[in-house]
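Re: Re: ligand-bound prediction request (bumping)

Still looking for help on this. To restate: I need the protein modeled with magnesium ion bound, output as structure tokens. Inputs repeated here so nobody has to scroll up.
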Amino acid sequence: MSILFTGRATGAKANRIGLVRRFLMFFVHHIRQALSSLGELWRTPAASFLTIIVLGLSLTLPVTLHLLVKNAQQISNSFAKAAEINLFIREDASAAQIQSLQTILKADPQITAVRHINKADAMAEFQAASSFGEALNYLTENPLPDVLVVMPANTEPAAARALMQQLAAERIVEFAKLDLEWLTRLEAVVRLMQQAVIAIALLLLSAVLFIVSNTIRLSIISKQAEIEVMKLVGATDSFIQRPFLYTGFWFGVLGGLLAFLVSETLLWGLRGAISDITSLYQSDFQLQAMNLYEFCGVILLAVSLGVGGSYLSVRRHIRAIEPSGP
Amino acid sequence: MLQFDHVSKSYPGGFVALERINFRIAKGEMVFLTGHSGAGKSTILKLISMIERPSTGRVMINNIDLSRLKRSQVPYVRRDVGIIFQNHRLLMNHTVFDNVALPLVIEGFTGKEMVKRVHAALDKVGLLDKQRCLPETLSGGEQQRVGIARAVVNKPPLLLADEPTGNLDPELSRDIMQVFEAFNQVGVSVLVATHDLGLIARMRYRTLTLKQGRMINDDLIPSRDQV
Ligand SMILES: Nc1ncnc2c1ncn2[C@@H]1O[C@H](COP(=O)(O)OP(=O)(O)OP(=O)(O)O)[C@@H](O)[C@H]1O
Ligand SMILES: [Mg+2]
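Reply:
Sorry for the wait, this slipped through. Here it is.
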């Protein structure tokens, strides 16, 4: 609608085009513009590809780290479940006493399973596994204690520790041991890695924002004359900035895909090393690739960086261009 | 409809390009603006199209003071004012068709309606067969005419032309002037800045004469000391 000339209908409204058609035309127009700015990328292939590569590779590092952390977490989770409490039984406890404690523990709802390793079996196992072999035969007495291996129902480290303290108070228990130290350590390492991923991601992503915005800035400068003409014939800033925002969008889509491909390839390449480590702890470890949500997340992140970086530039520089006279 | 009220314009550096200019143009009027080079003709057109702002005084269209308008409203003012630029101002790496279609695309036209209007505008300036060419491949006069087609394509109620016949031979100049007259006859106000005194004398429209930034004559014929 005209500001100066009341009653002068302008644009699509002047044609009395129906709302539905106008709505459709709006979409068709946007898609056409999006495609044409994809074509624009080919006009300056060097700058476009550099930007896409920088965007893609900068995203690759945090994405790969995220995948590694995810896999590490999987290990630490499966170990938390395996956490078991060893109860070392006093030497003077009778077999009947051990038997009754075992029965009591089995009935406890906090405990899922109890296994008795009797000292003779333990000795045999030790003899087989260690190199002492024959030497152990010279011992007059078996120095190993009976052990009850208890599986706590709640595998949280804190809950398991509380249960351990409770069981240590049993009369025939010499002492109880919960091997949690390394688990807490692994968890701490995972947490540290998670925080490192976030910090690195923030740094890289802000760098990406500036790189995209700089590429767009150069593109705006190279089109200065064109933008002046558009302003002279009545284009609004938002009309002029739209193709640049679409360029940013495509930087994001292509950069995101690149990050996806490279990080999956890296993970694939590292799978040997990863499974070497994990097989030390766990046999049925499965390498976790990116799932659909994560993939969408990466693309979304990349697109918002592309569009965001472009927007930063467009806001400042398109506004600053003012046509000088006829 | 268009009113200059004690308008002065000094450019940065202190050069006074216009001094206390007063005039009115009624709706549907056709007016020439003349004067020596550097007299301030283009400056007047720049003030109307909001490329420059007056240093003092008011430029008003339909009683709306242009300096009151917000920055975001400037594009909409320019859609109401068709401008033909002294140096063409075309998009050099777009076809003639795209150049002429630009004001329509900006206003949201698409499809058949847009093509129809672009063809009509190109037909008026006799360039329908050149619509697929790039402006670089056209002569100066042809580029001028592309600029004219672009200025009239969205049928603005006010048309400003800065030396529209600068590169045209007398015959083409007359044709282009007839295009302006045809617009004028359907109610468009037209303001043409030109050196071409012969053209002005032939056409006998109201003529504003500028000399070193001052309005020295407002009459049907240019003043004597102009010539
Ligand atoms: N952007 C500017 N900065 C400083 N001075 C300017 C600017 N634009 C124009 N001028 C000066 O203002 C005066 C009037 O310029 P203007 O362009 O209005 O003249 P004109 O009448 O259109 O001349 P011509 O017929 O040569 O186009 C000139 O002396 C010019 O030097
Ligand atoms: Mg001039």
